[in-house]
Amino acid sequence: MEKVLLKNHGKPDAHRISSYLASGGYKALAAALSMRPDNIIQMVKDSGLRGRGGAGFSTGLKWSFIPKDPTLQKYLCCNADEGEPGTFKDRGIIDHDPHLLLEGMIITSYAIGATRSYIYIRGEFDFGAKRLEEAIKEAHAKGYLGKNIMGSGFDHEMYVHRGYGAYICGEETALLESIEGFRAQPRKKPPFPALAGLYGKPTVINNVETLSCIPGIIENGSEWFKKIGPEKSPGPKIYCVSGHVKKPGLYELPMGTTARELIYGHCGGMLHENKPLKAFIPGGVSAPMLAPQDIDTPLDFDSLAAKGSMLGSGAVIVMDNSTCMVRTAYIINRFFSHESCGKCTPCREGTYWLDRIYERILRGEGTAHDLELLEKVPQQIMGLVLCALGDFACNPVLSTVRQFREEYEQYIGLAEPVAAEA
Amino acid sequence: MLSEESKKELEAALGKYPDKRSAVMDALRIAQKGNGGHLAKEDMDEIASMLEMRPVEVNAAAAFYTMYNIERPVGKYHIQVCRNISCSLLGAEHLIKHMERTLGIGTGQTTPDKLFTLSTVECLGSCGTAPMMQINDDYYENLTETRIDELLKTLK
């Protein structure tokens, strides 16, 4: 497949507008501005593009929920709060090809009638935030931002909003709270952001990778996009591979590439020849783990959902047979416990108590009752909270207890205590 | 007291939003940078009056986001080592122990000469080059004990 999202990576000065223009950049914007906004929305709907942040919702459909009233202020927010452990694709686009994102954002803003947009970037991405600010300046100087863009009559201003260390800001309503200057705690839905989002105004929130797909769709058409990957989850996908493989990194491939092709083909196989695959997480730590027998599953929204897991952000974390699954589940739960925003009691308390149970088990002080609790506590969290964080926190606990029960039992039955390392 | 330079930066940040309160995160970041990596109470109070917020609201925002250091000052170099899954799979815990030994401090502590603070953090979004850490604003990736030793020697 010809690269779409990472096509400019490795070119000299790829982040500069001169380089982006030389490779045909901002042509899609010119084409879009000559179209009717409705037609752009229809085109994106027809392309079958589904949100790359994790939920996989139809992007065109999301845009179509924005009220058409021209007197209403509307906003576009780009979710660049990339924090799902294992994920580093948005940073790849921002650091190396920021104008691809900007072009996608300007087209999207035109389609939904937004005169202002914000890029919410996580605080740790200092380099990326500066890259984006420079790119916005460059785009302004060339007339792709500001008043009357390319003579179209469309005005647009774009700003960078920097987070400062909170995973929950990747949740779209928490992200809005954060831009408004509050603690980033998710809102109750409805109302959905399309009707009452940023400052109570209609707002679209899209992921970096989603928005970066837009210029290609405008330039090549929705049929072109649809032909890449499976019919119901089409398009290019950036897989982020980490863990026990020879060549970790970003791989842009057709959606629906199998885990086998990715791990044993593109990534050169397992890190150590004598340590075979034990488990892999297909979509960031929120996604339930899969076993070696699931290796031929196409990595797309529907195929992974059918296996009881999810594509999430496309972060594939590979673990060989030296990996302790109890410890891995502990690390993941500790993360969710740390990042729980504290608004909903079941998530705040539940993840905390799960953390305590894991520490006990890892110290060699766990009992059969603790193992029961690991299955029971999630029942008090899942479905009882405002956002997905609580549910996601339960996935690794339940999926490891079910798939690697004997490892938990070994910890509980061990005569000599196993010290927790951290 | 916020410096003139910080105030100028804050003015620019205010221009990004229809609502003053939205600039609170930028304001806190600017204040922290201007104060050697630590948020001072008097700076937060000044931010509150500039943004027409109550001091307790500014504090509530600052306390929520982990990169604001309100409880304790940090050293000249704030070392933040990722402890999440991809880095752990490739030996992050050994590296953290190695750094504790080398610096002679525990995680969460600052060396007596105020040069280094060692922290562990959750995923920094650099999992393909694990294990990794952040020192002040910069990422250091594909870490080994040797690379860490060499790096620490250059930080004075």
Descriptive tags:
heterodimer, A: 422 residues, alpha/beta, four-stranded parallel beta sheet, four-stranded mixed beta sheet, 17 helices, 11% strand, globular, disordered C terminus, B: 156 residues, alpha+beta, Arc Repressor Mutant, subunit A, Glutaredoxin, 4 strands
SSE inventory with pairings:
The complex is a heterodimer of chains A (422) and B (156).
Chain A (H helix, E strand, L loop, with lengths): L16 H6 L4 H7 L3 H11 L11 H6 L10 E6 L8 H8 L1 H15 L3 E6 L4 H16 L15 E6 L9 H8 L23 E5 H13 L1 H5 L9 E8 L5 E6 L4 H8 L10 E5 L19 H6 L8 E6 L4 H15 L5 H18 L5 H9 L12 H15 L1 H9 L9
Helix pairs in contact in A: 2-6, 2-9, 3-6, 5-6, 6-9, 13-14, 13-16, 14-16
Chain B lengths: L3 H11 L9 H11 L6 H10 L4 H10 L12 E6 L2 H5 L2 H12 L12 E6 L11 E3 L2 E3 L4 H10 L2
Parallel strand pairs in B: 1-2
Antiparallel strand pairs in B: 1-3, 3-4
Helix pairs in contact in B: 1-2, 2-3, 3-4
Explain what you see.
The complex is a heterodimer of chains A (422) and B (156). Chain A contains 17 helices and eight strands. Chain A is of the alpha/beta class and 422 residues long. In chain A, the strands form two sheets. Chain A has a four-stranded parallel sheet with strand order 3-2-1-4, with helices on both faces. Chain A has a four-stranded mixed sheet with strand order 6-5-8-7, covered by helices on one side. Chain A is globular and about 75 Å long. The C terminus of chain A is likely disordered. Chain B is α+β, with helices and mostly antiparallel strands. Chain B folds into two domains: 61 residues, Arc Repressor Mutant, subunit A (Orthogonal Bundle), CATH 1.10.10.1590; 79 residues, Glutaredoxin. Chain B is built from seven helices and four strands; from the N terminus they run ααααβααβββα. In chain B, strands 2-1-3-4 form a four-stranded mixed sheet, with helices on one face. In chain B, strand 3 and strand 4 form a beta hairpin. In chain B, helix 2 packs antiparallel against helix 3. Chain B is elongated, with a radius of gyration of 18 Å. The model of chain B has no long low-confidence stretch (mean pLDDT 96). Classes of the chains: A alpha/beta (422), B alpha+beta (156). The interface between A and B is large, with 55 and 45 residues.
